[in-house]
Amino acid sequence: MTGSFPLNAWYAAAWDAEVGRTLLSRTICNRKMVLYRRTDGLPAALEDACWHRLVPLSIGSLVGDDVRCGYHGLVFAPNGRCTHMPSQETINPSACVRAFPVVERHRFVWVWPGDPALADPALIPPLPWLDDPEWAGDGAMTEVKADYRLVIDNLMDLTHETFVHGSSIGNAALAEAPFEAFHGERTARVERWVLDQPAPPFWAGQLGHDGPADRWQIINFLAPATIYLEVGVAPAGTGAPEGDRSQGVDMRVIHLPTPSTDRTCYYFWAHMRNYRVHDQGQTRRVLAAGGGIMAEDELVIEAQQRAIDDHPDHVFYNLNIDAGSMWARRAIDRMIAAEVAAPIAVAAE
Amino acid sequence: MSAETEWTRATVEGLRDLTPTIREITLRLPMAVACAPGSHLRVGIAVDGRADVRSYSVVDHDRSVVRIAVKRQPVSRGGSAYMWSLHVGDTIRVAAPRCDFPLTHGASHYLLIAGGVGITPMVAMANTLATNGASLRLVYAARSADEFAYRDDLVARLGSRVAFVDASRGQDIDIAGEIAALPDDAELYMCGPLGMMDAVRASWAAAGRNPIRLRYETFGSSGQFQAQPFTVRVPRLGLDVPVAADQSMLDALEQAGVEVAYECRRGECGLCAVTVVDVDGTIDHRDVFLSDRQHRAGDRLCACVSRVAGGSITIDPAWRGDGAFFPTPPAQAASH
């Protein structure tokens, strides 16, 4: 029996603005962590359990760069070392909690739940649109009561837009348009173009054009839990399928379903656009529209998780439309298998 | 409350004498284990027919195979003699490795200092750091040229990053110089005899370095004096308890029925610190719980590791009897 997620990977644990001079508790890949910022602004991530009596450090307090347990006052530095112990003049040399590698990049605070020796920041998924001045937008996080892979399945086949998001981004033309699926060792990609058709309401509004449009929908996956969509529309016949999207509106929709437990995830998402970048109202409206779309997905995915729990022996029958999610799951499974083959050294457990 | 890890049986797969006094023991466990550098393996041993537990640093590990190395002590508390009596094919009781001495990742440089058999956790640490491409230096001191365990392996792995210090040729670790050469955020990890670790601690403090970047592990097995027998007088209980040279004061007290609280049994936690009333001889403090100031004051000692060089020590245990804490019951009072 293997787990559902690899541990040797960077996962988005929080939005940049969620982490501050307070103690934020998050469970990432079944590891309880407490996140905060040091006085120099850099993030820190410690195991959320005091070395002494396991009381969560997140209900303690910040003392400068360190966390003080709210029970007996043991203090731990950002590297996990105990720096104060009550009622003794020395500090027990064994005392420490796990410190998780943590890096802030592309507006997210990323943590590495596995072997810290392997935590190379160069492996953080590249999501440049989040901090590129040519792009604007924002996002949020939704806690979803489902296996993070169900979110990936949902995103790797956007046929569901027609049925789940019919009032905003879906229409009948989309579900019938052909698509192609590609993959690498750790990546997968699904491309779909809908040519010379009316755009659905959300996209017609973004484009400011009611006539026939060429629509693209390109899904890019990087194992284990990073997806960005290239989605947009341009007036039909203006050259988008040939590579010139300049007459249209283009978005990068970032989806990071970070596994929390085997049955829950933190679903981080953001909509970045390369048009009307100084229009704050547009950012607010797209964020609100995105939230509405996300709520529709959440309803379906959580219902699916409950149904899976009710049918523990059921094996899915995959259809043509599932090619993208199959490539994605194979890439995840390869990462998990590599860890099982070489059990990682887990410090201080 | 201690977490009781499941105990299991391991088979001795290989024995190799690394030096005249250090023997490597290769053990196969029934399951693959995770084993971070700095982990130790707990082994169930028999001392004079009694079950006891000893901890040995893991040198190397591959799934279910774990290697430890054990020093043959001239005066053993029982563990070393037991481990040296093992043959290939024997089975022993072990608990899954546990790590109380973990490496912190991300320091700009690591200085490892090992003395004698204290090299064992440092081998695993040096290998991991070298594999990860970390900047490191290992300084390894031993009593004589033939007492450097793993010398060839370390040279092959570390090249010029390992330095050997041979005490028989009058060499000594230049502790202050080693520390002065370190970048500010370097970490120092050490394992070795108490005197060496005390000297490093003092130099580290004198250099004004952050104490949390000095990491060490002690098993409380060495002191300022050779272990010798002494007597513990417990006037409150009317007992004189002899402590043999190969026995801890804690074990002797327990066997004599004097209850002492304890946890780590290696001089770290401080639970077994007993009140000293008088001492005839010199206390050989071997713990890291009490501070230097408290060691000098000498009014407490950690019974699990510390000893007396000389004649005897008089202590007052925590026992007061039930009658000491509650008012005398009314019925009893009325009968007087």
Describe the protein's architecture and organization.
The complex is a heterodimer of chains A (349) and B (336). Chain A folds into two domains: 11-122, Rieske Iron-sulfur Protein, CATH 2.102.10; 127-339, Naphthalene 1,2-dioxygenase Alpha Subunit, Chain A, domain 1 (Alpha-Beta Complex). Helix content of chain A is 22%, strand content 32%. Chain A has helices spanning 148-156, 160-164, 172-176, 201-207, 280-310, 323-341, and strands spanning 11-15, 24-28, 31-37, 43-47, 61-63, 66-68, 75-76, 82-84, 102-105, 108-111, 136-144, 179-183, 187-198, 212-222, 226-235, 249-261, 264-273. Mean pLDDT of chain A is 91; it is low at 343-349. With 336 residues, chain B is α/β, with parallel strands linked by helices. Chain B folds into three domains: 7-99, Elongation Factor Tu (Ef-tu), domain 3 (Beta Barrel), CATH 2.40.30; 110-216, Nucleotide-binding domain of ferredoxin-NADP reductase (FNR) module (Rossmann fold), CATH 3.40.50.80; 230-316, Beta-grasp domain (Ubiquitin-like (UB roll)), CATH 3.10.20. Chain B has helices at residues 79-84, 119-131, 151-158, 175-180, 194-206, 249-255, 292-297, 330-334, and strands spanning 7-17, 22-28, 39-47, 50-62, 65-71, 91-99, 110-115, 136-142, 162-166, 187-191, 214-216, 230-234, 239-243, 273-284, 300-302, 307-316. The two termini of chain B are 43 Å apart. Chain A binds chain B through residues 77, 79-83, 88-94, 96, 99, 101, 116-117, 119, 343-349, and chain B through 32-37, 63, 99-106, 128, 131-132, 211-212, 215-218, 264, 268-270, 288-291, 293-294.
